[in-house]
Amino acid sequence: MTARLGRTALALLFFGLFGVLEATTISCRNEEGEAVDWFIFYKLPKKQDKESRQTGLESLYLDSTTRSWRRSKQLMNTTKSVLGRTLQQLYEAHASKNNNTAYLLYNDGVPTSVNYYSRKYGHTKGLLLWNRVQGIWLIHSIPQFPPTPEEGYDYPPTGRRHGQTGICITFKYNQYEAIDSQLLVYNPNIYSCSIPAIFHQELVHMPQLCTGSSSSEIPSRHLTALQSARGQKFLHFAKSDFFLDDIFAAWMAQHLKTHLLAETWQRKRQELPSNCSLPYHVYNVKAIKISGQSYFSSYQDHAKWCVSQKRTKNRWTCIGDLNRTPYQAFRSGGFICTQNQHIYRAFQGLVLYYEHCN
Q1: CA–CA separation, 249 vs 335, rounded Å?
Q2: Cis-peptide into 143, omega within 30 deg
Q3: Catalytic residue among 123, 302, 342, 356
Q4: Residue 243 to residues 152, 183, 250, 352, Cα–Cα distance (Å)
Q5: Is 205 a catalytic residue?
Q6: pLDDT band at 23 (very low <50, low <70, confident <90, very high)
Q7: How far apart are CA 58 and CA 324, in angstroms?
Q8: Which of 48, 223, 249, 298 qualifies as a FRET site for 177, CA 20 to 30 Å off?
């Protein structure tokens, strides 16, 4: 009887500890608030015609449990959207004021600032939230987003007019040392952060970046392999402003050994042409098609992504920070890439037509 009671007590203790651990496990979240290994959103541009009922807050959604794009049920500015659900963990962590959770928010377009755009830092936008179990990395293209933890969730008016993309990935804590090195190369404009001392031994650069005291030597570029909490493999390309070239043509396409179709915001008279001068080419996507909706042009799209050309053997999809413009060759930033076939097919299906080389 005593032995049985002992086993019961141990079992209750185990499940109790497991419950506490599970309750504090940080993860990307879907619209139902359920944990997912990763998700991708594509915020659609707002149509400018008067007859359109679109608000500029509609989006497509894809995650680790689905095989293709679906329309999001929630608008981007609601707390029930995937971004609202996911960032709720940030607000709860900030409110609890515990020393077990860290966060870091960065954007070259800082929220609630009159002169919100700074060329001093990388052309990077994202946030990290983690504890010693696991965390998330959200990489996105939305200026002035997200608000600081003190302000709670909102979606900025500056993010409505154009298309926007983002990817959230759940990582175990053992991946954060590699992410730490990538952030150093980024030189991000950090506008809100908290990294308690318990993380400083493994993570060297992010605490220094957080306080603005980093004196580490920055490499011109750095590539690292990452793995999500559920085992999805990624490659992350990070370039500093010492790497004075187009990240797509000069590095990513050649390393991945694939022709790339690149969709980035190309303002008129500020675009780089498609590039076929190297073994692997980069072609500018010029129009995006959405099922059940008319197409939109790349001039309406602030998204940053690329996908392998159909006839190439290596099928990659990358989402990130930088545009294909001459000026962005002098900015730091990067892309996270995967060979996930559902992601590849989803992005391939968006390409209506692209620009060939002259």
Answers
A1: 13
A2: no
A3: 302
A4: 36, 15, 10, 32
A5: no
A6: very low
A7: 25
A8: 249
